């Protein structure tokens, strides 16, 4: 296999990294909002969050992406496949991250919320300045795990017409008939990216103060 | 306004079938140290937590500097929850120190003390940190400002927690067994800070097992047993013989442990 082919795979992997990173971050923001809805004590918001989470956790990502891809033109929305991919991935990971965060929010000691109450924080301030930072720290390993899953799951977004690492590999195989070399190279690139993410995650865990409920 | 910082009137607290506080009435005088003592399960911590509205009383009223706390009565005399804004306003006069310190683990000592100054009092970061440093200095921890709670001893954490409350300039400080979670050799540094506060004339309500502290620093002592307030009096009267039989029994458990030479 030539360097030229490998370079094409590397370039496509940038798209994989970009789509995954943006989706994970948007997903995290959505997951925090879903958690806020869950903790708000407002029934309709809680129902919405529960429905959202069970729907997107209970259906395959591939089906969600195909549904989204075919639904958008029907309702008259025309957006680039990149945006479709990001929307699909973000929504799916938001549901999983919200479920991970739920455990973190439940692990925030009541006393820390009481001391925030006594300091005069409003519930919204307590949520963003006390609950969220502590819940994020408690669930960091699970969130890193989810980031790795999304990096791999991003191989599915080729169905909405986006050319990322897996799709590029398929295209190259079609024109070169070298499936073993090309798919092995693609797998290797995924592996390296995820090793970097896992290592960075462990470093972050070690450096953030107050991890592990201390 | 009366001379009392806190007025507790006919307070009742039930958890299901169990009555934890049974018709408690108590006045906390301004500028004095009031200690709540009694066996575990007597309701003294619950009473203190009611004074901060961290527990909702089933019946009765509490007034902080003359203002109702937690519940108000409407025109028809019906008891209703106070609005969140009003509750925050009344609570802003109270500082609370917890048995488990309850410092926020993701903030440094300085961050813990300055957080509410920034978020609630809307000070700039520089101004808030300057005020926070004054409080840390007061509890002798200015050289630990950049440490996280997990890097501090229990005694130091509790002193940071006291500084955090003091930074908001409360009129009343509530202490819920502030030394119970500490190793014996660390209780002294916390009690010293509290003695300093008392000598400045801070109104303090202290739930404590430190009978020596209650006897020497306290201006009034209330003895609770099984949810009832048996009596409130000056330490000289409370500890003078003959004593209330239930108190005598309670103090005996301290003598058994050799924990106090005072009683």
From TrEMBL, chain A:
A GO MF label: L-cystine transmembrane transporter activity
Domain annotation ABC transmembrane type-1: ranges: 9-201
Entry keywords, A to Z: Amino-acid transport, Cell membrane, Membrane, Transmembrane, Transmembrane helix, Transport
Membrane topology: Multi-pass membrane protein
Transmembrane segment boundaries: 12-35, 47-69, 75-96, 138-162, 182-200
Stored Gene3D superfamilies: MetI-like
Coiled coil ranges: none
Domain of life according to the entry: Bacteria
A GO term from the CC aspect: ATP-binding cassette (ABC) transporter complex
Record Pfam families: BPD_transp_1
Annotated localization: Cell inner membrane; Cell membrane
Family: Belongs to the binding-protein-dependent transport system permease family. HisMQ subfamily.
Name of the protein this chain belongs to: Polar amino acid transport system permease protein
Organism lineage string: Bacteria, Pseudomonadati, Pseudomonadota, Alphaproteobacteria, Rhodobacterales
TrEMBL record, chain B:
Annotated PROSITE patterns: ABC_TRANSPORTER_1, ABC_TRANSPORTER_2
Major localization listed first in the record, in broad terms: membrane
Gene Ontology cellular-component terms listed: plasma membrane
Domain of life: Bacteria
Topology with respect to the bilayer: Peripheral membrane protein
Sequence ranges assigned to domain ABC transporter in this UniProt record: 6-251
Localization per Swiss-Prot or TrEMBL: Cell membrane
Coiled coil feature spans: none
Gene3D superfamilies, sorted: P-loop containing nucleotide triphosphate hydrolases
Molecular function GO labels: ABC-type amino acid transporter activity; ATP binding; ATP hydrolysis activity
Keyword check for Disulfide bond: no
Entry's family note: Belongs to the ABC transporter superfamily.
Name of this chain's protein: Polar amino acid transport system ATP-binding protein
Organism: Alloyangia pacifica
């Amino acid at each position: 296999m030539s360097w030229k082919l490998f370079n094409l795979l590397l370039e496509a992997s940038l798209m994989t990294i970009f789509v995954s990173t943006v989706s994970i971050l948007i997903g995290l923001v959505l997951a925090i909002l879903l958690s806020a809805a869950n903790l708000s004590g407002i029934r309709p918001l809680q129902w919405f969050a529960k429905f959202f989470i069970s729907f997107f956790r209970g259906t395959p990502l591939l089906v969600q992406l195909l549904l989204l891809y075919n639904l958008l033109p029907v309702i008259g929305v025309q957006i680039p496949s990149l945006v479709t991919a990001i929307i699909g991935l973000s929504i799916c990971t938001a549901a999983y991250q919200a479920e991970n965060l739920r455990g973190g929010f439940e692990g925030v000691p009541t006393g820390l919320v009481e001391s925030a109450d006594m300091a005069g924080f409003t519930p919204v301030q307590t949520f963003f300045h006390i609950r969220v930072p502590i819940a994020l720290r408690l669930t960091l390993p699970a969130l890193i795990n989810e980031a790795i899953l999304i990096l791999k799951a991003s191989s599915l977004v080729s169905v909405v017409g986006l050319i990322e690492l897996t799709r590029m590999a398929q295209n190259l195989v079609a024109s070169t008939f070298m499936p073993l070399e090309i798919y092995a190279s693609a797998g290797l690139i995924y592996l390296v990216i995820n090793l970097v993410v896992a290592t960075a995650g462990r470093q972050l865990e070690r450096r953030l103060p107050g991890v592990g409920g201390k | 306004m009366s001379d009392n910082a806190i007025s507790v009137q006919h307070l009742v607290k039930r958890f299901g079938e169990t009555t934890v506080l049974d018709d408690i009435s108590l006045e906390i005088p301004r500028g004095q140290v009031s200690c709540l003592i009694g066996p575990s399960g007597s309701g003294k911590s619950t009473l203190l937590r009611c004074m901060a509205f961290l527990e909702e009383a089933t019946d009765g009223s509490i007034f902080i500097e003359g203002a109702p706390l937690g519940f108000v009565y409407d025109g028809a005399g019906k008891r209703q929850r106070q609005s969140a804004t009003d509750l925050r306003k009344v609570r802003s006069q109270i500082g609370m120190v917890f048995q488990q310190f309850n410092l926020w683990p993701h903030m440094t000592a300085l961050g813990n003390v300055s957080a509410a100054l920034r978020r609630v009092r809307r000070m700039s970061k520089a101004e808030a940190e300057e005020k926070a440093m004054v409080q840390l200095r007061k509890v002798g921890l200015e050289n630990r400002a950049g440490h996280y709670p997990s890097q501090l001893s229990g005694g130091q954490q509790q002193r940071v927690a006291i500084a955090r409350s003091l930074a908001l300039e409360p009129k009343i400080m509530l202490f819920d067994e502030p030394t119970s979670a500490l190793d014996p050799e660390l209780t002294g540094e916390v009690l010293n800070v509290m003695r300093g506060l008392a000598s400045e004339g801070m109104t303090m309500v202290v739930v404590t097992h430190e009978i020596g502290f209650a006897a020497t620093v306290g201006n009034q002592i209330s003895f609770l047993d099984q949810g009832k307030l048996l009596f409130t009096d000056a330490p000289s009267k409370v500890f003078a013989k003959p004593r209330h039989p239930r108190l005598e029994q309670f103090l005996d458990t301290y003598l058994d442990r050799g924990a106090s030479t005072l009683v």
